[in-house]
Amino acid sequence: MVTVAIAGGNSTIASNIINAILASKKHQLVVLSRSPQPDLEEKGAIVRVVDYESHEQLAKALEGVHTVLSCIWSYGPTIATSQLALLEAAKEAKVKRFAPSEWAVPAYDKVSYYKVKESVWEAVKKSGLEYTRFINGLWLNIWAADAPREEAIGRSGYLGPPIIIDIKAGNASIPGDGSRQVAFTDMRDIGKYVTAALDFEKWDEDSSIVGEKLSVNEFVDKVERITGKSLNKTYLTLEQLNGLIAENKEPTMTMIYEFLRLIEEGDLDLTATINQKAPEVKPITLDAFLTRHWGTA
């Protein structure tokens, strides 16, 4: 058993990791939050209210903590400044392990909002702490949006836009010819794998989690087969995606196009490094996920 602290406890990915750690009943969980969280305390977590501008308060909140998992998320520079403050406090508190807030792919130079994360990663590598980046591709929960059955369960807290396929609208935006491989992972499975990683004797620099990997064309085919819908397909070349990114002024759409570009450039074709170390975790497949939430039977 270790004492693990999760920072950014209100974020979507944090809630899934919190649930998995608490369900394991193996570790003591501390949640760092900017405000009280009585619901988490009722579930068995220790909630410590912190101000990320107070080094003394952060260091005190991390006393006795072995592992820090950062799930801090915000648009703009705060995601970096808060994590750098957290890292400095972790060093003072003699924390052993630190995982920065990644939870997708480390595309610092390819996704505008991710650029600020690079300074955190560089600082983590120089910190003297054991560290890893949890990398998991696209969240499967994206495609529970507007599902006719158990939408809230499928979303698992995700409230963002669809990527690649908008199932309700019946549209598919396909990068390149659709042959590129993409890693899909349910956030609930990410939580289970992260919980398993707390017991690993040694952390690798990158910890890749893959629920399932298939090409964009295979993804489209599965959606059409399971939902019974024929999707309107738009194929976008790399040149077209670069143009859309350059001319778009709406941040959400820019990020969607940037992720489509990541797919076409092969950045979502991940090789799992965590799965084989935690064979007890059985990740949900795309077929099972789509059938549960969109199946016509």
List descriptors.
single chain, 297 residues, alpha/beta, UDP-galactose 4-epimerase, domain 1, 11 helices, NmrA-like domain-containing protein, oxidoreductase activity, NAD(P)-bd_dom_sf
Shape: globular
Strand order within the widest beta sheet: 3-2-1-4-5-6
**Biggest sheet descriptor:** 6 strands, parallel
Q: Termini distance?
A: 44 Å
CATH architecture name of the largest domain:
3-Layer(aba) Sandwich
At the first level of CATH, the class of the largest domain is Alpha Beta
CATH topology of the largest domain: Rossmann fold
Q: How much helix is in the residues?
A: 25-40%
The stretches of 5 or more residues where confidence is low (pLDDT under 50) are none
Question: Helix- and strand-based class?
Answer: alpha/beta
Rg, nearest Å: 19 Å
The fraction of residues in strands falls at 15-25%
Layout of helices and strands, plus pairs?
Elements: E1 3-7, H1 12-24, E2 28-33, H2 38-43, E3 46-49, H3 55-61, E4 67-70, H4 78-92, E5 97-99, H5 117-125, E6 130-131, E7 133-135, E8 138-139, H6 151-155, E9 165-166, E10 171-175, E11 181-185, H7 187-197, E12 206-208, E13 212-215, H8 216-227, E14 232-236, H9 238-247, H10 251-264, H11 286-294
Helix pairs in contact: 1-7, 3-4, 4-5, 8-11, 9-10
Q: Care to describe what's here?
A:
This protein has 297 residues and is of the alpha/beta class. It folds into two domains: 3-131, NAD(P)-binding Rossmann-like Domain (Rossmann fold); 138-185 and 211-269 and 279-294, UDP-galactose 4-epimerase, domain 1, CATH 3.90.25. It has eleven helices and 14 strands. Strands 3-2-1-4-5-6 form a six-stranded parallel sheet, sandwiched between helices. Strands 8-11-13 form a three-stranded mixed sheet. Helix 1 (12-24) packs across helix 7, helix 3 crosses helix 4 and helix 4 packs parallel to helix 5 (117-125).
